[in-house]
Amino acid sequence: MVSSTEYGSHTWELSLTVDHQHEGVRKEFLLNVTGDLHVGGLMLKLVEEIKIAQDWSDYAFWWEQKNCWLLKTHWTLDKCGVQADAKLIFTTQHKMLRLRLPNMKTVRLKVSFSSMVFRAVSDICKMLNIRRSEELSLLKQSEGTLKKKKKKDKNSKEPATEDILNLCNSPVSSGLPANPGLYSKTMTPVYDPVSGSPASSTITWFSDGSLKEQNCSILALSHPTCSPEMLAEMYQPRTLADKAKLNAGWLDSSRSLMEQGVLEDDQLLLRFKYYTFFDLNPKYDAVRINQIYEQARWAILLEEIDCTEEEMLIFAALQYHVSKLSLSSETQDSTCESEVDEVEAALSNLEVTLEGGSKSNILEDITDIPKLADNLKLVRPKKLALKAIKTYWFVFRDTSISYFKNKESAQGEPIEKLNLKGCEVVPDVNVAAKKFGIKLLIPVADGMNEVYLRCDNEDQYARWMAACVLASKGRTMADSSYQAEVQKILSFLQMKNWTMCSQAASEPENVDMKPECFVSPRYIKKFKSKQLTARILEAHQNVSQMSLVEAKLRFIQAWQSLPEFGLSYYIVRFKGSKKDDVLGVSYNRLIRIDMATGDPITTWRFSNMKQWNVNWEIRQVAIEFDQNVSIAFTCLSADCKTIHEYIGGYIFLSTRSKDHNETLDEELFHKLTGGQE
């Protein structure tokens, strides 16, 4: 009998395949190796056998049977578990990948297929001049969203390549590390040597960036070219179940592209996965702002998020304005016009979420705790579709609303006190009809308690709505963002409250507009082209004076104001339930939604979460909250790891701070999102 020591010292044959492009040179090799040979030594031995003089530094071993890379070159074959039956492929770590950006443009570039997706996305964003790469990820289109396009793809595959922006000569694409100096807080303007005007700050982040040589406007400017026919070919979700399909294909950030079945020259979608846009600054974020705007624009056009007719016309007017400015010769200076002093930028961007670029002073006197007190109408839904509407005296203090029979009785006990922390706040507004309502869905033990408040005018609505929004997040009116929230709501109402402009309305023929490019298919069917043009021009009167960047920021702000903004849907089965539900994942909460009606059943805030984990054997996510509340569910429309990563990712993003010198704690991200499978 041979001892294990003697056995380990014996040589054995290992099959190796070399993935190179040299014709006439063999690619299959059989090398005699021992178990104590380390991976680096195996590489050296193979390269000597190949006898081709070239740079092999980007090559590594891919173990196809085990679906993993052998990147730890100091490990021995025994430690890696490699035996005689293993088939290793010696291939490049950086390969070509086609990425479809939020603006529907496709870029072709070399990406690391061996790095974790989180790191790969970071490198991609450096190449594309997009800050805050942690907000983005890669999405593989699911089969359900491709059905409409299959026939067309067969016939139009070649023409589609004309639209591709090739970035394969960039440093990251060549397998070299990206410039580590991402950007500086103390940037000084760089001036164009030809025109003498300040160069766009975004282009100058990377002295060796691939977009510096190419035309950055492709990514920083919007070029709306969609048509009704183009929209018809694209996937449009009709139900919550359809919307769940959109989120099924997110790649695992803790594994490499190769490990997830992505092949060279495959097409993936680069999208903003997390809807918390931190530190949006027009001075540095021309590409980032445009790509967020484009993702929002397509979400509206494809009806991935619901909005009213009034809101759709505002979105259409803003798109029309952006397209006009983008096509005009003045766009080259738009970034320069919007640049502000570094200190002002820091002050105006204190909020984690976008505040619409408001320039008002957000510092306020917080020595006393503000409160609101007004006569409001309380609307309570009754059976048989009847509603009881009655006026009460409402007092808003801290994060609670109390209401009394009248103002005189406000010193006594309230009829009811509503704690808004953790509630859902839904606007119910029709400016034309002078309807200013606030729908509150307040979590209770057995679901959600619905309360409707009706305000008398825009100012009253803005103050109460802003207070409700902050209270739902556990913040009071003493918070520095309260006034900014009020102004944001008022500006949005002002955009809705357009007045008829006789000139614009009576002469839509004189305007070169394709209204079908700016609204979703539902409204193309509802209105004739001339009607749409006239209504979009009416709405355009209130936004016609905006700069290009301001219009994009207003569009994003209006998108953020929609009730469904930031919700990613998944079909789940809760433990103990006999039917499927939809789970909405947002930046600060989880919402259980009835799949049939679309009504929220209950909400759980991340701020009340104690812990969450996954039972990998039965693929079940379990979460514990305060007050002994616990839930468990299995995910039916995607892998449970996807939801686990979403929750951990949002919690990770909530830890970001400008004081952290702009560096990301990648280890913390993987700790919160990776799980222990």
TrEMBL record:
<dbReference type="InterPro" id="IPR001849">
    <property type="entry name" value="PH_domain"/>
</dbReference>
<protein>
    <submittedName>
        <fullName>FERM1 protein</fullName>
    </submittedName>
</protein>
<dbReference type="InterPro" id="IPR040790">
    <property type="entry name" value="Kindlin_2_N"/>
</dbReference>
<comment type="similarity">
    <text>Belongs to the kindlin family.</text>
</comment>
<dbReference type="InterPro" id="IPR019749">
    <property type="entry name" value="Band_41_domain"/>
</dbReference>
<dbReference type="InterPro" id="IPR019748">
    <property type="entry name" value="FERM_central"/>
</dbReference>
<dbReference type="GO" id="GO:0042995">
    <property type="term" value="C:cell projection"/>
</dbReference>
<dbReference type="GO" id="GO:0005178">
    <property type="term" value="F:integrin binding"/>
</dbReference>
<dbReference type="InterPro" id="IPR037837">
    <property type="entry name" value="PH_Kindlin/fermitin"/>
</dbReference>
<keyword id="KW-0130">Cell adhesion</keyword>
<dbReference type="Pfam" id="PF18124">
    <property type="entry name" value="Kindlin_2_N"/>
</dbReference>
<feature type="domain" description="PH">
    <location>
        <begin position="377"/>
        <end position="473"/>
    </location>
</feature>
<dbReference type="GO" id="GO:0005925">
    <property type="term" value="C:focal adhesion"/>
</dbReference>
<dbReference type="InterPro" id="IPR037843">
    <property type="entry name" value="Kindlin/fermitin"/>
</dbReference>
<dbReference type="GO" id="GO:0007229">
    <property type="term" value="P:integrin-mediated signaling pathway"/>
</dbReference>
<dbReference type="InterPro" id="IPR035963">
    <property type="entry name" value="FERM_2"/>
</dbReference>
<dbReference type="GO" id="GO:0007160">
    <property type="term" value="P:cell-matrix adhesion"/>
</dbReference>
<keyword id="KW-0965">Cell junction</keyword>
<dbReference type="Pfam" id="PF00373">
    <property type="entry name" value="FERM_M"/>
</dbReference>
<keyword id="KW-0966">Cell projection</keyword>
<dbReference type="InterPro" id="IPR019747">
    <property type="entry name" value="FERM_CS"/>
</dbReference>
<dbReference type="InterPro" id="IPR011993">
    <property type="entry name" value="PH-like_dom_sf"/>
</dbReference>
